[in-house]
Design a protein that fits this description.
- The protein has 2 helices and 20 strands.
- By secondary structure, it is mainly beta.
- It folds into 2 domains: 176 residues, no CATH class; 75 residues, no CATH class.
- Strands 1, 2, 3, 6, 7, 8, 9, 10, 11, 12 and 13 form an 11-stranded mixed β-sheet that branches. The protein has a 4-stranded antiparallel β-sheet with strand order 17-20-19-18, with no helix packed on it.
- A hairpin with a 2-residue loop joins β9 and β10.
């Protein structure tokens, strides 16, 4: 399994296999990273879910500057549970061009809100909690996530989206409920439906059912005396579309003819006239 590092927990520990006289003790050491929170001004683990990630000194990990490992991918063992603790071993540093399978993500309440761990639907199925620390309003979690995996916090739903030009990096992006509603509304607005035939009792004489173009009713009281041949909405393309041709990014409305609500002949704009749109 290839894992790209996007962040670390706040607590580091080191374990050396040999005594202080061994000149290679740092190369043979193991480094453990887990989560922590501030308690009375001091960093404490306060684990709700116990776990850690491990790096070996001989695997390419630089313990003197862990920040240089951000955005780098490692060959890792599969996550496991040993003696009640979640563990992931990062074995070997991989070349920069390798595309990762998972991402190591550190999440803090002060940045994204509190994770709803344990509640139904709090995350996607591919999210694995390595460690979680909590103390009052403070919270920190170390997660293993796949691309486009998501978690739900007190703020909203966050989705992990890889950077297009650099797949080893990714960012958590907030998805608001309002954005979903706006997308659905825009889809309806920009997908006009043909005018269907109305029943005889509801059909207006000014709305010919044989027309398939969208129709916009225009009040004659607001029409200028000389109506321009083309009414272009703000931001519409400079060129005029042909009949039935789609206009890029906007709509251009052409005056075809203005009809009297009583079914009169084309002529001067009268109350209740209509302006047919070319989409």
């Amino acid at each position: 399994m290839r894992v790209s590092i996007l962040g670390f927990g706040s607590v580091w520990r080191r374990r050396s296999s040999e005594g202080p006289g061994d000149p290679k003790r740092f190369a043979r050491a193991a480094y453990y990273n887990t989560t922590g929170v501030a308690v009375s001004g001091k960093l404490r683990t306060r684990p709700r879910i116990v776990g850690h990630v491990r790096f070996n000194g001989v695997g390419g990990f630089n313990p003197n500057c862990p920040a240089r490992m951000i955005g780098r991918a490692f060959e890792c063992e599969e996550p496991c549970v040993w003696q009640g603790q979640n563990k992931v071993l990062f074995k070997t540093l991989l070349p920069r061009g390798v595309k990762p399978d998972q991402y190591l993500v550190a999440v803090r309440a002060r940045e994204v809100g509190r994770l709803m761990v344990g509640l139904p639907g709090w995350s996607s199925d591919d999210v694995w909690v390595i460690a979680l620390s909590e103390w009052r309003e403070e919270q920190e979690a170390l997660l293993l996530m796949a691309a486009y995996g998501w978690v739900r916090t007190s703020v909203g739903k966050y989705t992990l989206k890889p950077v297009a030009c650099e797949p080893r990096r990714a960012r958590l992006e907030l998805t608001l409920a309002e954005e979903t509603k706006q997308d659905a509304l825009l889809e309806r607005v920009h997908s006009p439906q043909p005018l269907t035939r109305l029943p005889p009792s509801a059909a207006d004489s000014s709305l010919g059912s044989h027309h398939s173009f969208p129709v916009v009713r225009v009040h004659a009281a607001r029409l200028p005396r000389e109506l321009p041949a083309v009414i272009r909405l703000e931001g519409s393309p400079p060129c005029e579309p042909r009949l039935g041709q789609a206009a890029a990014d906007n709509l251009v409305w052409r005056r075809t003819r203005l009809l009297d609500p009583s079914g009169g002949r084309p002529g001067t704009p009268r109350p209740g006239g209509i302006l047919r749109g070319i989409v």
